[in-house]
Amino acid sequence: MTAGGRAVPADGTYRPLADRLRPQSLDEYVGQSHLLGPGAPLRRALESGRPHSMILWGPPGTGKTTLARLVARGARAEFIALSAVLAGIKDIRAVVEQARALRGTRDTVLFLDEVHRFNKSQQDTFLPYVEDGTLIFVGATTENPSFEVNNALLSRARVYVLKSLTAEDLGHLLDRALSDEERGLGKLKLSIDAGARELLLAAADGDARRMLNLLETAADLSVADGDGRRLDVDTTRAVIGSTYVRFDKGGENFYDQISALHKSVRGSDPDAALYWLCRMLAGGCDPLYVARRALRMASEDIGNADPRALTMALEACAVYERLGSPEGELAIAQAIVFMACAAKSNAVYTAYNAAAKDAASLGSLEVPLHLRNAPTRLMKDIGYGKGYRYAHDEPGGYAAGERYFPDEMPDRRYYVPAPRGLEIKIGEALEARRARDRAARGAAGS
User: Fold this and answer.
1) Confidence at residue 1, expressed as pLDDT on a 0 to 100 scale
2) Which of 79, 103, 298, 305 has CA 20 to 30 A from 438's CA?
3) Which residues pair with 113 in a beta bridge?
4) Closest Cα to residue 71, out of 127, 138, 130?
5) Gap between the Cα atoms of 4 and 69, Å rounded
């Protein structure tokens, strides 16, 4: 029987629509054509009935669990599913004992959801059993395996990258849900207005599970229409609520988006920079985090080409701390746009890195005597500060020919101003001073 959009079996149990519609074969599987299209390596492995250990990496709702089940089904293997959120080493050992008991009659596929939640020692627990074939391991993760999975496990399992489902993929699933009378909503004869359909596909954001859950809830609220039911835009919008944007604070998605924002500013594209800023804010990112990153952008990518960028970034932080949203977010947006449009220079960033390298590698070189402070008579008597030339007393306020590096260290030129913005004038001023240095040192040596 059905209650609204929910199919409730005679025994009273309930299975969500997304679970009922889970594909039972490769032909029913939607999306991931790069992995499962005709002749693709993973499809060939599944069809051969001899799958290998693998890690499925992709966003939520892209079919990782379903694919793991199909791996086991294709191999006629025992399928055991664990979640790394709840399972521990004891559970892994129990699975190993079960797999050993079955060995010789059928293989065992261990599916570990959210494998990135296991620490390194927990991951090590099942390595020997993957190595000797006791287990066919299938791990699923939304996080980059390079950072979250042991190298030893990565070397024993092939990584497959799953992609967010396209609107076309989601549309196929939606049509199947509406037409399937046994597992879907076909018995409801539910029709969906074009606008409501578009809202569902957009709100899913590439996540099939999310779309089907929204559809099921919306179907409960749909209105009778002849011998069927009808789902309109207003009902769908009410079910969806606020816009959903995939964003995992601290996860790879987070760092991908802040990277895109930073590179858009660096590339002088204010429109793209604003888009990524709004994507992050819509996903729940702390605006102050973005404001602090803007400070980094101001120093790393703009520097002295336009020093106002650093001031604006600081002021954006202050405005947000003082006023909160939405005024503070607008101030951050203003700073981001200004920086994207500003002249760019990484000269200070490059100079800082080079100087830091020398400071770390050249050891504790002594400060030259003429640069040392001499607050006591004894220090003056042994030469501290002797010969120091006070720049303000020199012509033009510059002590031409003076040297400020340690005596044992050759001259370095870390800071090379870019031919952009204010650094054009800075470069000209530095070159004029260096010309005076060369003249003064030449006269001293003649």
Assistant:
1) 45
2) 305
3) 83, 140
4) 138
5) 29
In the chain, the amino acid numbered 364 is: S
* CA separation for the pair 280, 299 (Å, rounded): 22
Give me the residues paired with residue 228 across strands: 225
> What confidence score (pLDDT) does residue 8 get?
52
Distance of CA 182 to the CA centre of its chain: 40
Contact 235, 193 (CB under 8 A): no
Whole-number pLDDT of residue 2:
52
Q: Determine the pLDDT at residue 61.
A: 87
Helix, strand, or coil here: 164?
Answer: coil
* Token pair in block for residue 364: 């504790």
| Cα dist from 444 to 167, 397, 436, 439, whole Å | 76, 20, 12, 9
How far apart CA 200 and CA 244 sit, in angstroms, is 11
Alpha-carbon distance of 211 to 202, in angstroms, equals: 9
Share of the chain above pLDDT 70, in %: 94
Ranges of residues in the chain whose predicted pLDDT is under 70:
1-12, 242-253, 445-446
Q: How far is CA 311 from CA 161, 258, 425, in A?
A: 42, 21, 20
Q: How many Cα atoms occupy the beta-carbon half-sphere of 283 within 13 Å? A: 21
What's the pTM? 0.61
End-to-end CA distance of the chain: 105
Long-range Cβ pairs for the range 49-53 (8 Å, 24+): 49/74, 49/75, 49/76, 50/75, 51/75, 51/109, 51/136, 52/136, 52/157, 52/158, 53/130, 53/135, 53/136, 53/137, 53/138, 53/156, 53/157, 53/158
Closest to 311 (Cα-Cα) out of 335, 286, 346:
335
Q: Which residues contact 381 (CB under 8 A, 6 or more apart)?
A: none
> Domains in the chain and their CATH numbers?
32-161 (3.40.50.300), 167-240 (1.10.8.60), 261-341 (1.20.272.10), 365-445 (1.10.3710)
Place of tokens 């993929």: 169
pLDDT of residue 6: 56
Q: What is the pLDDT of residues 396-406, one digit of tens each?
A: 999 999 999 99
Task: Say what the pLDDT of residue 123 is.
Answer: 83
